[in-house]
Fold each of these.
Amino acid sequence: MVLLALSAFALVSPAATYAATAGPMPRAQALQLARDGVSDEVIRELKTLATRGDSTALAARIEILLSDASLEPAARERALETGTFLLGALPPERKARQVLRQISQLEPQTWVWLEEGGHRVSVPLYDPAAAARVSERAWLAREAEARFSNKLGTTAPELVDDLARASLAERSGVISAIAHAPAAQLLHSKPSILAALDQGVAVGWYAAEVAARTYDSELALAAIEHAEPREALDMLDALGDRLAPGDILPLLLHSLRSPALASHSLFVLARLAPVSPAALSQIWQELENEENGGSAAAALARLSSPEAAMRAAAVTVDPDRDDALRRRALLALCLDNGDAAQRHLQLLTQSLGDSSLGQKASQCAGR
Amino acid sequence: MRRALAVLAMLVAGMAAPAAEGACRLNGASISNPDDPSCRDAMFRYVESATTSNDEVTLGYPVPLPLDSLTPVDGFRTYESLKARHQELAVMLDTVEAVPVGQSGMGETIVAYRMGDSDRTTPLGDPEPAVLVNGTIHAREWQSPEVVTGLMEMLALRSADGGIGQYLSDNLNVVILPILNIDGFRQTQRYPERFSADPDQPRDGRMRRKNMRYDGGLVDTDLDNTADNFQGVDLNRNNEHGYGQNNSSSTDPVSLINRGPAIASEPEILALQAAAALAPAGQLRLYVDVHSFSQIYFAPLTGNSRRDELTVQLMQRMRAVTNFKYRDGRSTASGTGNDAIGTTADYFAYEYQVPSWTLELEPLNGGQDYGGTASHGHSGFILPDSEIARVRDEQAQTHLLGFYRQAGPPNVVAVEVRAASDGQVVYRAEWTGNGGRRSLQVSTNMALLPGAQYRLWIAFSKPMRWRDENGEMQPFAGQTVGADSGSARLEFPGQNVASLPLRIDRAAVWNMAPGGAPDGYHRYADDSLSVDFTLPANVAERSAQPVMLVLDNADLSGQKLDADPVTPVSWTNGHWSGFENELGEEGDIGGLDCSISFFAATDANANPPADSPSCKPAAPTSTGGGGGGALLWLLPMLAGFSFVSARPRRAT
Ligand SMILES: [Zn+2]
């Protein structure tokens, strides 16, 4: 039994960076070791120090933990992880920094089976070092938030360069600062941001965040062009919920021309379509587009309206329309669970017969 | 944006509460106090930032929220848009067929997709082999539907690429079931930031693993309606072969690994079997069940030694694509065939004797691999948005190679020789067949003249080399066969003439443009090569003599030639069949092809010699005697020309 467990462990031993001291164990067993009375007491102590806001005292207590051999490794790791998060919420005093640095060098000691029974592969139950790195980034973020909160509204020449240099953690701080800054003030720096984006400076993320906060369409357009796709998508999502259709539509017309943004943009259009004829008409227009047509079909299906289903059916049967367009119209029906669409689909399977389009229609109807 | 805005909000707040821990008493994969409100009703929320609140769990990166998009994004798509993507491919392309294979407990249609041309026959007339990939059997493993959808997107994109994608479309039936556990997956997407029970054994909401069925009904989708939150069946313990065995599943309905009331009791498992029937199941050569996490191939070894060896070889080839960062998890009770636990990988390994595994995707350890936290060992189910695009691409590459390899070993399909002087075809032959034995149809067979120059064109059954985006010939990621691989020579049996090496170990000989002989590819880019030679002046001085082409080559996954194209390679009982080496012995390795011979004569109008040579030695009982029977000339040649050393070593 022991041999079998050992060989299983050797086979799927953790990555070289993590040397487990003891073999992996069942989670319940590890938790029993970790949640003993002593560590509960230690954690209470840590929390008391944290509540007092005494970063240095908390750090000193954690430092003792680091070499406290009286604690089970699992219990020590549990306390260290908790202490590390607590420390991350306090100001980064010198002692605190020093202790987090130490913790960030630790390797996990307590490995548990990822799955009880079956495939035996182990993962760390706690990873104080990983927690320390997260807390260190939280400090960086808070420092950045403080540093940038007065600066964001200014036309200070170094602002753009600072933003472009910001690490991911610092960006978090800036984003938090944006959330708390008055919208009008944020726009003071707009000209310099737009100019920087034109020159290829990497502040698209900032434009996206400020646009989402201020609804500024120029910044939003710039973000569509220059931000990372996911940043732009999240911005469009946020704006789609907040802007009037007339204000968001011009932005979506731009994002529809970006392959990475077009599909999601069509779903944003679908949200607007019930109240915006222009949005609806744009979806139909995109149905004709080779790149975006599939997503347009999905957007139409989401509307699940009898009118859309009828029109899609009409396009599907029209022999004068091109085959790809007819297929996309068929797709709109396939994806629409509404009664109207399903009725049209049934009729189509009969009228299209055994043509390749007819076969696709019956595949859909079969679902 | 809401993601971004939440980043720090929690940091400064909530200092007094303890770190998130639950009140559930864990009992293996089960919980011994499931009705205790402090366990059952406990709710938690994933947050990005360091938190000390008692109902929050720090991830250390933005909590992924599903996004509507048919096209891939840096992140995870909603169930609705994944489904729309699959159906888009099915409706738009004739090479993708959507087939309903079942219905989930909640009435959603489970759909499998058959990818490849509509016939079930290869261009050489053989029945198409098949592979099956299953996705999203475990609801919370969001990496899986993305990766499996990525395979579909890759195959669709490549289906008319003129190369490897086209080859797969023509020659392989790829059946993909991207989202098996629809009900469970939708439940996780309803609550992308929340879970119930205990951070040490998170359960419903984002962390649901099982389906939504239990004895007596369906799990209610409202997370806060907690009475049934622990219910559901682990679909990966519900299968024949190992069901209820080896201490790895439970009859306890609240267990994470509850095996269900009976073998294949769950509609999802019946749907998977129906998907296999599309292959059809008898044509399967690979099954992959895509999970996360821990970055490993859990490959059951069934005790069928050839199957097990081929499984390991294929796994190693595929692991090499990502530089072995995925681990080798072949079953620990190596080859004893008795450690099955009722997973779908067990089912296909034992039932169909094909390479079969549970592929656990990234991460290796957990979210800490990307700067996040360990989250009590569970953050690995929540891959950061920023990582999934890379994982999709890596796995698309990996499976492209795996599918290509399992489509079958290469063989010579056609050869042509043209005179350099006037372009006249002096030899042309093609292997033809329609599902049974093949025969070599020689349409032209004229004498090659001593001292004259020729262009030799050789076509194989599959693309043999890989090119990067710039068209440069390179070994496929992690593989060894490249421009400088392979050899060929002309032998002059029965004559005292040294063999003539043909320099095919260079990129320039491979044909990447269509057009067939003499300079174009046959069916797929890089499936053929063209090489010039000058016939030695001293051959066939007295009479017409055979010229034998001896070819040593491997496909881009390192699989050697089927030396005897007469018997098409197939897959039987866990191994290749009809896959011979140059001595005519069946095995799993292949060898030199000597099936093509033309002839030389000083007279352009000479008739070909009666015998055609081969690599096979004479039968030991044969007495020879100069007649037309045994090819005694070959025996000294075998010794002289390193045939023996070229013979591949058999796997042990
Ligand atoms: Zn899984």
Note: Residues 128-149 of chain A form the longest helix (22 residues).
Amino acid sequence: MAVELHVNGVRHQLDVEAEMPLLWVLRDELGLTGTKFGCGVSSCGACTVHVDGTAERSCTLPVGDVDGAHITTIEGLGADEAHPVQIAWIEKQVPQCGYCQSGMIMAVAALLEENPSPSRAELDEAVTNICRCGSYQRIHEAVDGLTNV
Amino acid sequence: MGKWTRRAFLGAGGLVGGGLALGFAFAPNRMTILSGDSDASTAELNTWLTIRLDNTIKVIVPHSEMGQGTQTGLPMMLADELDADWSTVTMEQAPATETYANNDVARGFVLGDTTLPESVSRMLDFSLFKVAQIAGLQITGGSASIRFTGQLAMRRAGAAAKHMLLQAAATRWDVPVESLSANESIVTHATSGRSATYGELANEAALVAPPVEPTLKSPSDFTIIGQSQPRFDIPAKVDGSAAYGIDIQVPGMMYAAIKHAPVFGASFQAPNVEQVKASPGVIDVIEIDGAIAVVANNFWRAKTALENLELLCVNGDGESMTSAQIYERYAEAALSEDGSYDADEGDVANAMLGADKIVRASYQVPFLAHAAMEPLNCTAWVQNDKCDVWVGHQNPLGARKSAASAAELPEEQVTVHNFMLGGGFGRRSETDFVEQAVTLSRKVGAPVKLIWSREEDIRQDRYRPAVANHMAAALGADGMPTAWQNSYTNSGANEPGESPLTQYAIANQSIKGVDVSSAVPLGAWRSVGHTQHCFFNESFVDELAAEAGQDPYEYRRTLLADMPRHRKVLDTAAEKAGWGTPLPEGHARGIAIEQSFGSIVAQVAEVSVDEFGQVKVHKVTAAVDCGIAVNPNAVDAQIESGIIYGLTAALFGEIEIDEGCVVQSNFPDYPMVRLQDAPEIDVHLIDSGEAIGGIGEPGTPPIAPALTNAIFAATGKRIRSLPVSKHDLA
Ligand code: FES
Ligand code: FES
């Protein structure tokens, strides 16, 4: 199927199976490897991207369903200037192995867009991504810092 | 990471364009070095440090970065001894082949490839040889990087370079070296007011003979060690540019998905291979040892085609195996009178006879998977006379050895390009996935990126062993233990050897392991044997305190009377957690302490259990004595990490076996602690000035018993088997 995607402001026309998950289109067809594969079943959030401004788990999202959509990946989030979430992540030294952090940052950035000062409970409910290195304490602190501004 | 080129170095000590290079020499035959009969003409210099004329300093780090901060901590140690200006220091990861240096990438890593000046080979004394061995093995595990590479190699390299720079300034200004001082990459002669930067002195310093035994600073003189520094690896981890093994793109690369026979040791028959081979994008379907792989031009196509393969599992000897049988067999085995003794002190039998009270308890912990966030993967390209491997690995040279054997090539013809690791926890020290990628590349004649699905990652792990034990203790009239007995099952993966020991002063002790077999493949899991034994030991001592009617913190404190470091750690955790102070209704605290990998960690968990039996961990307070904390913020992070890793295991972690297969498959049935379950964590570092301890692992062991001891305090229910989620606490 012919699909058109606007990824990080660049228009791509692709001929791929409609069922192919967006994750593998991004990684294997477009070479955008900042978006990660963690579980493939929408459970861990490592593959989180923004589809028309909303956080979505791309590993189970068929590319045919997002034809024409505007997609932002971690590579595009702070392309012009570092996003506040990225700055807070460096400031609080959040990442450890870092593998979950693309998805984590995309999920948090989307939440803050929608709700600039989420309560702790709202944050925990909205961001259910897994960090196997256990950077949760620092995520809490980094988001607290952003919402107190 | 920058690139090494062969022409990066001109000669011994000098850099093209000027500057100083310093490193350690290796000879192909290490025994020659050990016997002092070094053949300088074949030795090669392994570079650790360069100082350029523009005053920039680069440190080369031989360990992998898994997020533990090693690649920042090691340069800090070197820079401190060098009295460097930290803002000008950068790092680079060493290639995986430096000691053998037989390909273009690695050649640049050695300083010249022909002869070595005598001055360099003189640096090889015995302890440096040990460094060479550790660095040569390049294993990142056992919480060893900072402890060994940092202490033995990095600090010495920094101190040696400083000595050479001071000497160069003394010669240039014709003043005694004692009249000079170094600070922030500048050498100053106070009397005359002269000064020069390290960069300005680098060319002359390159001509100075390195000291045989450089003098190291005393900890009170440290200026960089002990001061939190931002980690070098973090900026690339927030913008998607950090490159993990799974991210490598090689021109012409194919993608492979793999499925292993679910019963350990079994294999597959696949009746519809030909049909699947005709699926879109599929290049080949390949059977390899106990598994079957589909190679395609995109990972999703490979994975989808694999799902369409009909697979019949055959020859599974273990196909009737279940977890219940294994636990039963282990519990029975641990009753045996036999076993190999870790401790056999005093007269336990006699002490039991004279006891005021005897306490007995049996414990059990399950198999656990690692589930590193980045699923296992490896990319390989085997060509006629060479093999390239791209992987994030805890043991790159081990990976190279396995790749060589799978490629049937000499090791010198294999290059391992080591990448960031999306978590390792011990799983990435195994090489099964490396061999598979090499085999697949050989078969299809192209570069192949093999990615395991999460399901394979969980079902084909090398598991943390399940262990069962029986414990008994004799209590005297004062309630304190006079004898301690522990008989546990040992399936061969219970390292390190000291992990079963009790840290408490008890006169009569009998601690022994009974060998048991395991059809379930086993491997190293963060903190290895300490995770099982700390749960057993710290639960049991808590039971003794309860039997004695004493406070569990005070009880431990009494038993640690002669162990001041332990006592201080325990006291700090208790005090910072407000031990004994009132808590909200329904909350309770539990405490545990463990020494592992040279560090001592105590934790207090504050929990509550609701009417439905749901456990909530509100707060964990940790006190840590790791000797000297090189990069305190990174140490805190590792303790936080270890606690969450151990908490996930304690609350939810169990790999169950049914009909010979692993039941769990992915995060929905192998659950993880997430943001909403994450407790507040409060870490306190104790600067004891003692030898530097490891930090990647010691945070993990105490959390399970701290948690279950707190649950006991809250509910009166003693949890003797993990995970907690299997117990009805309502
Ligand atoms: S990879 Fe998509 S949610 Fe885990
Ligand atoms: S930082 Fe490693 S999984 Fe989150």
Note: Residues A 95-101, 131-133, 135; B 67, 373, 423 surround FE2/S2 (inorganic) cluster (ligand 2) (CB under 6 Å).
Amino acid sequence: MNRITLNRIKDKGFLVTGIISTFIGLVLLLIFMADIFIEGAPRISWKFIVSLPSRIPERAGIYTAMMGSVWVLILTTIISFPIGVSAGIYLEEYAKQGRLSRLLEVNISNLAGVPSIIYGLLGLEIFARVMRLGSSVLAGSITLALLILPIIIVATRESIKAVPQSIRDASYALGASKWQTIYRQVLPASFGGILTGVILALSRAVGEAAPLIVVGALAYVPFAPRSPLDDFSILPIQIFNWISRPQHGFIVNAAAAIIILLIITFAMNGIAIYLRSRWQKRVSW
Amino acid sequence: MFTEAEIMDLIMTKDSKTEHLVNDIIDKPVEEHKITTKNVNVFYGDFKALKNISMKIRPFSVTALIGPSGCGKSTYLRVFNRMNDYINGFRLEGKVVIDGVNIYKDKIILEKLRKEVGMVFQKPNPFPKSIFDNVAYGLQIQGMKDKHFINERVETSLKKVVLWDEVKDDLKKNALALSGGQQQRLCIARTLAVEPNIILMDEPTSALDPISTGKIEELIFELKNEYTILIVTHNMQQAGRVSDRTAFFYLGELIEEGLTKNIFLNPKEERTENYITGRFG
Ligand SMILES: Nc1ncnc2c1ncn2[C@@H]1O[C@H](COP(=O)(O)OP(=O)(O)O)[C@@H](O)[C@H]1O
Ligand SMILES: [Mg+2]
């Protein structure tokens, strides 16, 4: 057999392996989703969404957990967005050179890979205990904000980096200051990318259970939180709790809640994709 | 170019407006220069990009900077609006005086300097904003709020670059939707809108088609009446068409400088002649 045909066979082999690997992932995911859907979809109703938790599976709903998730999402956004974007701007535009900034850079990338439960421990010690926030929505939200901060910082930096130097040059050459150039040219041009990053980070935060369990979020709270200092539960913890119950009715509830959580994350991802495409249409160099 | 009779005529009817014209034509020394550089060395780290450059630039003239790639033309151009300041390891020695101010020594505000010394880049680089916003930007960052004033300045600037008629009905359109030539004229308009005295142009037509290039050359010829222009160009014909004086750079040195026609027709240096006749490039 000559070399060329051998290469061609290798080529084909690789292609087939690639296709199979891709499909294994997809198929497993589809089976899992189908299973969840078959089990949970009939359970979903308006009543399921607005009902309080209960010991009887047929009466139980996700209201408190969902409102807890909404609270956490909003507070996490309020905390992480300004800090993450400012840090990204600072690192990319102001702290360019020097040892310290390189050290920061490496550490931020590493932080993005730290297991989320570690953040939970940090949140428990510092926010819940030292700062005496207890196992409140606020303590949980600060913890999650910390967790997604590295993602937001990295996304901000990447989007800012994508703005061509020629735009900055043009701005400076017209007499703009550094801040004017950032505020009036760089940020508007990169905002779509930043927003996309923030939404993706938040959609990750909304699915996290481990760090909030450590901080002390409860599986059962009788009411939805009314202030940032109230106790709370969130959807992933509610799901986790239901799954560990023996009654089949709760398993069905868990499946239904998973569907709703999936819808929320898919919707957030959808918004992110939409923003990205809109932004790319508006700004292309 | 002028005939002998016209030159004599100009010399006889000496008035302040035509004086620089006369001086240019007969290469008579002038008293007041717009820009003076003296013994300027520029370093990028250890690399010496400009070596002991001394040169004077007359007001209301077009000076072409020519020379092979990498000889320091862009570096020299960016000296005047201090755009090199952003480059890592950049260092300058010597004196650069604009209108009597040493721009590297005296206390100057960079934003103000750049209001006086505008720049047009090699590749058209409009902001990803509307045509109007592009031209208004320079005024807006100065804090100008008067809408009427801004509107008027946008219009006059676009008229000066002969773009007004093409875009006046669509000022809200994104500047990136314009053709390359239109974009470059927009960039010139944007520069004019802040009313500089000096305009630096770094190969402004190298990314453009011949027709757009012609339009911009005509424009440069017009602008000379109001501005002092420095233009980097790789195109010898262009240097010949638009410039009064030409400076030839080679490996970071200023080899010679003089009236364009002298540089082209009887250069003093062999290296200049070799470059102009295309023996190296
Ligand atoms: N940012 C920079 N950092 C280091 N060296 C540079 C930089 N820009 C230009 N140079 C060097 O300086 C010399 C002159 O460059 P430049 O002024 O761009 O030349 P020209 O415009 O005549 O082609 C070149 O040798 C180039 O490699
Ligand atoms: Mg150059």
Note: The first strand of chain B starts at residue 35 and ends at 44.
Amino acid sequence: METINMADMQNRIENVFQDKNKEKLTIYFTAGYPRLNDTTTILQALDEADVDIIEIGIPYSDPLADGPTIQETSMKALANGMNIQKLFEQLKDLRTITQKPVFLMGYCNNVLKYGTEAFCQKCEEVGVDGLILPDMPMNEYQIQFKPYFEKYNLKNVFLITPKTSEERIRTIDDQNGGFIYMVSSSATTGGSWEDSPERLAYLQRIKSMNLTTPQMVGFGIADYSALQLVNQYTDGAIVGSAFLRNLNPENLQSSIKQFVENIRTPK
Amino acid sequence: MGKLDIKVDENGYYGEFGGAYIPELLHPNIEELKSQYLKIIAQPDFQEEFKALLKDYVGRPTPLYLAKKLSEKYGAKIYLKREDLAHTGAHKINNAIGQALLAKRLGKKKIIAETGAGQHGVATATACALLGLDCVVFMGEKDIDRQRPNVERMRILGAEVRPASSGSKTLKDATNEAMRHWINNPNDTHYIIGSVVGPHPYPDMVTKFQAVISEEIMQQLQEQEGKNAPDYVVACVGGGSNAAGAFYHYLNNEKVKLVAVEAAGHGIDSGETAATTAKGSSGVLHGSKTLLMQSEDGQVTEPYSISAGLDYPGIGPLHAYLYASKRAQFEYVTDDEAMQACVELSKLEGIIPAVETGHALAALNNLKFEKGEVVVLNLSGRGDKDLQTYINYGNY
Ligand SMILES: Cc1ncc(COP(=O)(O)O)c(C=O)c1O
């Protein structure tokens, strides 16, 4: 059972990164937003849309790395009554809904309070492929978290920024993570994207490092040109705030379909 | 208890509490601070400048005053460490000046800070005015409404007060906003945290800047009592900086009983409290593993206390360790008990204390002293800022 699951997961993630020519897109959404029980509807719509990886945000009261959009969706989701128990219940049929890789994104405190082992076990049970915990530092990962991630076949995703040293990036590359989350600039989520020379230099620098772990770029990506640009240098783009801003609660499915079509269409 | 050896380890832990749970975005800033702070603090010219400012500008050493009537009432020799007489009216200035000097040596031109009641904001604005640094203070929208006079003080001193409108719009969110601002402005900015909280090395660094309090207590007690250690040190705990400073040189002297006093608000079990050690559990808040008040689901909950300076959902990792290891005794004091103690000190000794400090004073009722025992109570601040709270309380 465990080995089958592990093979599935390997395949799910590897399949995504196999086709080097296709522009790859990860979509982030906050669980419990706009309504408590929209999670499976959004997952279905993302499964049908041309999306490669799905990132489900666990709403947290104090999201340090997030800008205004994700702060707001998190507060709304919490006010709607979202919590981790409910999220795991909503995800119990995850693998009948989609075969795309699914990562949970949250903050350390969510996991610690639930119990790190219990949390990881639950993730494996519902078919989550990995975790993104932006406030989990590498040394704590190695000491406290890694044994459970490995035991329950979860991939960890580390973040790097334009200021992360080459040595540190190499260490992260050696961790066998699901992918490397390249934060586009020194900023919280949802900022604006500009094709600055610094940004290009960052993309080029990382490309030239020939890392073994795939890289995806996130924070501030909102349209086709940014999607296309980062795909030239890396393995894909992650879109969160812009996606959330475009969700129409009255017609979730069609607003999701429309958004993904738009961001995939050259202007 | 074996031989005590309480100090931070190289990863920033006190026992199981501490560390640096920060987004990668803050890693370079925190690394820089971690690799530099001990070196800079140890530099002779830093020490010289810091000590001179503490003496001539802050007005240190602050007196250690034997409160005779209070002593009579409680049946022990009660000394008040008069941090209320420090410039800007509280201990917060010790840390603000220390960190502002450090920021200059790191080549930073801009300072950010968070504030709840406004005391740390005023102290930071003051240090920045003095040292010619730009200053932005984040303050929850709710606190801006509650603490107008301090908002205006910061502005008079040339600081910009930026409303934190996220989350619950109080101190915890002001801290989040300050950290987010630091993420977005990593190069030229230093973040002056106001208490012994946050990611390593902040808890240790702030403790070291506040340690001047117990350093002075040792000397002053030696002069006045012929011994440098009291039987008790009592201090209130919001994040824990005044307590950390007052405890510091006694942490490993097991003969000294350390008493940390938290705000019980309307009562520990009222649902409206800031008594973190009574109601909290282990988790991560503002970058360190510590005790905090949170829901079953790990969401940080909003504390309550009449005193804005104690209205914080966590405590620093040092205090979490002192609690877990039973090195310190924790006491809980309600709004009413604190206000009564504030009025009592005003009438008995002619000192109007900060409402935060009223919590430490009220805890004297919970302690059983032997005759002749020596107690040092850290009088962390003066009550000027709390006039409206006194007026609302009315019972004087
Ligand atoms: C007078 C006074 N005492 C105590 C505190 C609590 O902070 P800490 O626990 O860091 O000393 C404050 C905070 O604003 C304060 O102004």
Note: Chain A touches chain B at residues 60-65, 67-68, 71, 75, 78, 83-85, 107-114, 134-137, 139-140, 158-161, 163-164, 168, 183, 186-188, 191 (CB under 8 Å).
